[in-house]
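Lab channel / #folding
Pinned by the channel admin:
"Please post every new chain as: sequence first, then the structure tokens as a reply. Keep commentary short and put observations after the output so the thread stays searchable."

First post following the new format, from NK:
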Amino acid sequence: MLIESTGSVLPFSCEQVFDVAADIERYPEFLPGWRSARILRRQSNICFVEQVLALGFLRVQIATEAVLLRPSRIDISSSDGRFRAFSCSLRIAAAGSGGCTLTIQAQLTLRSALLQQVLNRARLMSFDGLLSAYEARVHQIYSGNQR
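Reply from TO:
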């Protein structure tokens, strides 16, 4: 399943939006479905992360690698055996008048066809919801407003 969500133009710099997206250990505070996120180690611009996601009634612990390419991109991948494919890319691009846009592109395919059907039907991973959560967090931190 390949999903892409494009956000609206945010009145913040690419660096500000990147800083929110790169604050991985705070994901459970503002991203729906995240129960925990812990950076196990850092190596240059790569973070090795252990995360627990709630996918409906399932709690899934996965190990991911996040490659931080400041200020324009974060690429997240996993070689966890439960997934046939797991990747997520957050792209931050300059927009007019000093603002920027955030785009999330993800591919999530489970090895279990049955669980994949459940995931697809329930739309448990709403990337529009994730995008809105990132946008609300940027507003909260940099303008003091919660959207």
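NK: The chain has one domain: 2-67+77-143.
TO: also worth noting, The longest helix spans residues 127-143.
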